[in-house]
Amino acid sequence: MPSLRSRKRARDSDRTATCDRLDVAFAEGQIDGVEHRTRVAAALRAAHIGDLTALTADLQLPGVARVRRGPSPARSVAVSPTPPDRDAPGYWPVRIGVAVALVAAMAVAHAVVSRPVHRPPVPPPTATAPVPVTAPVVVEPVDLRTDRGLTELVAAVRRVAGGTVVDSLSVRGPDDGGVRIAEPGNPRADRTYTWTPGAGLTRLDVVSAIARDPDQRTVELGDLDTTALAGLLADAPRATGVPGARSVRLMVFDPGSGPAAEITCTDGAARRGTVTARPDGSGVAVFAAS
Known about the structure:
20% strand, globular, single chain
């Protein structure tokens, strides 16, 4: 029978925490890109805590070590000693000897404490060693147009932006991409995050001159099939008749008819071809260059 906690409703923070654990498992090689995408999509749709727990139950994840506690020691029963006989031979001489010894010990202790303490002079302060500068974190280069690159981009959006619901995602080259999202608490403003080689996803401090439409349609990046989209990106120049394409761009957005992925290929002769599909790679349509 499932526990009471497993039947409790999941919060957004629970879903995000599970996605973070799946990102760690993918980065460590415990699961591949396809399984990572499948589990993340399931986590984002999970309704109960038990659904989220099942998604990470077979993964090696950092946890809190449990301390084994031994059995409680048996309680001892105090036995009152038999009172000594004061009339017994030797009782008073022993007590008097102990009292004399205690007085002598107290006198010695008082002499030691009262003696002045000679402390060596304190040396002058030395120069403080410079604090070593921590080197910046360097992100391993990755081609954003590949399955691995798209997976890492989505994971970075979740980690940096705090979620995977975006206005749009774009990939303009092997190391050039980013997303736009609504400003938290202000649906009329947006934020832009861009991918920087060696640093990963960072926020771009720009202020748009055009106010964001509060009814802007959004896309859930957890629904992306990164393997299928990477395959479409790789084949787009051939499929569109632009084999020498200088630019292959991916845009994921909602044009009003539902989330879509659009791949555009262009060359130096202004030839342009387009491939469109759903974010999961289905419904492919090719518009070849004329």
